# Entry
Amino acid sequence: MLFQDIMLGLDRFWADQGCVIALPHDTEVGAGTFYPTTFLRSLGSAPWRVAGVAPSRRPTDGRYGDNPYRFQYFFQYQVLLKPSPLDVQQVYLDSLYALGIDPHAHDIRFVEDNWESPTLGAWGLGWEVWMDGMEITQFTYFQQVGGFDCRPVSVELTYGLERIAMYLQGVDHAFDVEYAPGVTMGALRGDFEAQHCRYNFEESDAELQRLLFDKFEVEAKRLLELGLVHPGYEFVMKASHAFNLLDARGVLSQTERQNYVQRVRRLSEASAREYLSQLGELETAPEAS
Amino acid sequence: MPDLLFEIGTEELPSWYVDEGRAALAQLLEERLAAAGLAAEQVRGFSTPRRLAVLAEGLPERSETREELRRGPAAEVAYDDSGAPTRAARGFAQSSGVEPGALEIRDTERGRYVFARIQRGGDAASGVLPALLAGLVEDLPAPRKMRWADVSTPFMRPVHWLLAMLDDTVLEFEAAGVRSAATTHGHRFLAPGEVRLRHASSYVDVLREAFVLADSDERDEATWRAASEAAGAEGLAAHDDPALRAEVRNLVEYPVAVLGRFGEGYLELPDEVLSTVMIHHQRFFPTHAADGRLARFFVGISNNRVTDEDVVRSGYEQVLEGRLYDARFFWDADRRKSLSQHAWGLSGIGFQKDLGSMADKIARVSDVAGRLAEALDLPREERASLDQALPIFRADLSTDMVYELPELEGVMARAYARAEGLPEEVALALEDGVLPRGPGDRLPATRIGAILAVADRVDKVVGFFALGKRPSGSADPFALRRDGLGIARVLNAQGWRLPLADLVLEGAAPHRANGMEIPAEGEAEVERFLWDRVGSLLNEQGMPVPVVRAAVQGSRSVIDASRRAHLLRSLMGHEEFPDLMALYKRAANLARQEERRRNVKPGLFRNEYEAPLFEALPGARRGVEALLAQVREALPGWDLASPPASPLGELGDGVRAVLALKAPLDAFLDNVLVMVDELEVRGNRLALLREVTEVLRELGALDQLEGA
# Structure
């Protein structure tokens, strides 16, 4: 199955499950969880179902394209269901059929894997899903987001698209995956990956990123105070990416790193607070201890 | 005598909770049944990744009846002048469900009151159990419960069904948003859907038919049998690792073994690297040939029996090859640099923000290790090896392999040291220095490694205490207790009579040289902390608390304390020794009256009971020395986390020599008035008693032994 058919198949499947198929957000994020359609919309009491491809950037994970599994830029398929349906595991297994995988023909396991994002003030409990020993999906019941307890609880599914495609196509490197007829992932992304790795690890201007982080932080605070949640949160994402670049450049001491994490976290929490406040649910939202 | 079955069906539980949750559920049910007067003859727990269950066999039909006395109003207001019950008494009788005439008056500490005798219990089990079982779902202890959807009851994972039956009858109730029923669920893939139960007692058999082995022992055996058979097909043995076995059996409901293999070329990686990748990343059983060498086959335990096993096998192989590919990449890349070059990287790895980088730390550790080597009189050749190991100690922390697989720290240092041709003693010491990694781990086998291990840990403990980051209560975020236990175990195993106070002083010196303020009280605090670890290790070995206190307070080094503990426990088991201790106590109480130390002067003896006691002292002293020598010889050093290699055995002549003190001491204490007016005589008698207690106190801080 072509890479693009996997994405289209999942779109179709989750659309049929009542999900909004959202387009990728046009700001760099470390994971689909940062998307406003996940981070912000998982807050509050209103039901919400969303799915879609989430291109993600994790500068420290880059390996210049040498490692078959690790990249600084990759595609997740992100699903968020609020409240979490009781049959979500079965629905998930059904979604595998959409990829041409019959779960009865494989060894599929739900293995404990809990998740925590210090920069988002968020954590959850769940599993990584193993198919024949390979991790193909992260499954998380959000317990806390932006420093607030989740009521009701959302469940987030994150498919590792490259891994699934490698498995389905029987290839050993994500760049060998056929994306569209006659076009491999490597042809689409190979240069991009190698050059960005060089940029992330060797060439990025650390002083510029420090400066940008400071400016983004100030701007995020200013906008959130004005009640502009969405533009404000956008600057939180930008600040977070600036921090990720600094981290990859290896210029942060442990203490400094911790400091940046706390600063992003405070911004995330302020965004969550303002979002809930505008929903009129701040009073009833249980603040986590 | 009916049987009660209760099963909580969930989404996949964390593998470690499958055992823990089963035990917790069985215990909680047992407690609640007992409290409700419904104690069962036997309670058995079952569990798989998708269920926790209990079968309570032989339940009474009705709860035990018991009588309770309920206190009512004071007697004086309960009856009027004519002796008739007042309104207060009648109201109390009514609310207690008895006739006013049945009330009785009793004396209590607070005066006379009326009481009603109330019959409790006798309720049908089927009536009591629904609420009791619902309470189990609410109250089952678990370290980290979660919420899901908008269900208000948290649990380890979302609850899907509740099976509750008393023999063949459903016990109906609702908990965690689910109604109980007489149905369970079979294997997720092999027997999906509901399975109806006819009788509580058929639980295990019904589930076995539905491809679920609910009995943990049965599943464990099936897992191991399947793994062994699969490996056996290639003439190999599966690696028997109890922790792996426990984890694997709790990741499946129905174990199916799949034998796979990896490329021969990966066998050039050190065995530990291969095993770690297989075990920690994939939960595969490594296999080995009869000569113990790792083979290129592995066994994966699948949770599904599929039509085409090759699909699963090739999946396992592909994933494992990917991991091994990475590992070999790191192995090759890391070996392009020597360990000395890797050591440069330590300055980029933080240890603790106020204690500097790992490079700073290793500099301090080198300093401490050097001083320990002096103090322990390390032979010259070993000293040379130590000096060779120090600059590259923990250098593997900056290798790619250890970055990716942190559990291989130490193992990689040894492997890379061998690969670059360093002497074997150095290679072994580098690994030994990070041992023990935890409570069950082995200890350094080499002396140099033991010095590194102790120096590394004492640097950390002293440094963190100086920063005020000491453990408190159950909170020990920096695992300092683990380090303290490591120090105690290594010192004891080496049999070094190194005073703990000296060790702490050495550990503090480099921190002080770096300008850190460590007051004397700070050192004393670390020393107490280390002694507490020694004490807890001895306690865990079943050593009585007073014996441990006496041994610890009477010793300066760990090995002296642990030997004394064994000696004292043995002595306390002797029929006459506790009597001697009672006499010791009387003597010590008297001796305390005299602050000044003076020599006993036989010329001042005024009474026939003084000289015999004095004359018994040299023999007793020799006896104490003989006992201490015996215990030194019998217990040459061992891992404090386990019993000594050979037990202490019968105490020899020493014990008779010490006990020879009993008769004269007894006679002295019974017949000699110590506190006479004549000051010189009084002082002489106190000095004699002081000598007696000092001789005995060589055995330990005997004052702690009361009640031992």
Observations:
- Residues 550-705 of chain B form one domain.
